[in-house]
Amino acid sequence: MKREIAKKLKSCKKIAVTCHLRPDGDCIGTALGLMHSLTLMGKEVSIFNIDPTPTFLSKLPGAEKIKIGKIPDGFDCAVFVETSGLERSGQDPPSTFTIHIDHHRTSEEFARLNWIEPDRSSVGEMVFELFLENGFPIDKKCATCLYAAIFSDTGGFRFSNTTPKVLKYSSLLAQAGAIPSYVSKLLLESHKKEEIFLLRKILGTVIFNGSGKIVAAFIMRSFLREFSLNLSDIETESIMNILRSIADIEVILLFKELDKGFRISLRGKGMVDVGKVAELFKGGGHPQAAGFNIELGKEEAIKKIFSKIEEIFPWVKKQE
Ligand SMILES: [Mn+2]
């Protein structure tokens, strides 16, 4: 599949790339990495996303070129970067040739070419391998973006998806010009002071289940209004990383208030497959990172989710 995708990309002149809704570092970094390499090959490449680029990713090289909206007609092919299905891209069914590259377990084979490997750390890892094995050019900008993609989905090389291959590829990307300290600074150390005030509010909402193995925190819309921030301005991964740092925590839940109900991001530390939890609530993801929406009030939602997790993973429940 990898080779077929490489062949197809080489044969196309005008290429569109798109990310999933609420794009993250892996998705944006990979889309930009594709753009840089394919541009070096003389192709016309445009990225069309439905949702804006989060502020903390907007300084990645080329991010200013990302367009917001649907893929227009006239492209030879469209690459869907980890969109799971067509729905999560927010795009209309394209009339052009489609390629889908993903590492989500719940991914659908909706495109003409689908390369899905759930045991990969990131799509950044996959695309770098495709470039490496098929002689695609990698300059400093491309390397920076792919390194950022891998860095992002491995939690800065801390999660259990940090395999020897991940470290090897990251080293090769550093050799190709990615500066690790620059990427870390960009992704982790670019908060505005308002975000720290917001963080204080969010940490004020923290609650645990009976055993102290599940933790939840809430981003209410009133908090965002208070500091004139949008959800896309804040880098929620760092909030979850703070909660993750609690010694006995197995599951981290971050509730983001929507018009109706909440969007819930889940992170696991290995014992609980949070992807399974998300699937029970009609969401999806990986064993260690997943998400779903729920249309319930705060108290009801937390009760339902805590008890569901305790039901399917009884060891996270308080032992009587
Ligand atoms: Mn990813």
Helix content: 25-40%
Class derived from helix and strand content: alpha/beta
The CATH homologous superfamily of the largest domain corresponds to: inorganic pyrophosphatase (n-terminal core)
Q: In CATH, what is the class of the largest domain?
A: Alpha Beta
Q: How many domains? A: 2
Query: Do you know the CATH architecture of the largest domain?
Result: Alpha-Beta Complex
In total, how many beta strands? 12
Quaternary structure classification: single chain
Poorly predicted ranges? none
Average pLDDT over all residues? 94
**Biggest sheet details:** 6 strands, parallel
Radius of gyration: 19 Å
- Which range does the strand content fall in? 15-25%
Strand adjacency order, main sheet: 3-2-1-4-5-6
The ordered H/E elements are HEHEEEEEHHHHHEEHHEEHEEH
Write the layout of secondary structure elements.
Blueprint: H1 2-11, E1 14-18, H2 25-40, E2 44-49, E3 67-68, E4 77-81, E5 97-102, E6 113-116, H3 123-133, H4 140-153, H5 164-175, H6 180-188, H7 193-203, E7 207-208, E8 214-219, H8 221-226, H9 236-244, E9 251-257, E10 262-268, H10 274-280, E11 284-285, E12 289-294, H11 298-312
Helix pairs in contact: 2-3, 2-4, 3-4, 4-5, 4-6
The site of manganese (II) ion (MN) has 6 residues, from loops.
Describe the structure.
With 320 residues, this protein is of the alpha/beta class. It folds into two domains: 2-188, inorganic pyrophosphatase (n-terminal core); 193-316, Diaminopimelate Epimerase, Chain A, domain 1. It has eleven helices and twelve strands. It has helices at residues 2-11, 25-40, 123-133, 140-153, 164-175, 180-188, 193-203, 221-226, 236-244, 274-280, 298-312, and strands at 14-18, 44-49, 67-68, 77-81, 97-102, 113-116, 207-208, 214-219, 251-257, 262-268, 284-285, 289-294. The strands form two sheets. The chain has a six-stranded parallel β-sheet, covered by helices on one side. It has a six-stranded mixed β-sheet with strand order 7-8-9-10-12-11, sandwiched between helices. Helix 2 (25-40) packs parallel to helix 3 (123-133), helix 2 runs antiparallel to helix 4 and helix 4 (140-153) crosses helix 6. The longest helix is centred in the first third of the chain and has 16 residues, at 25-40. Manganese (II) ion binds next to loops.
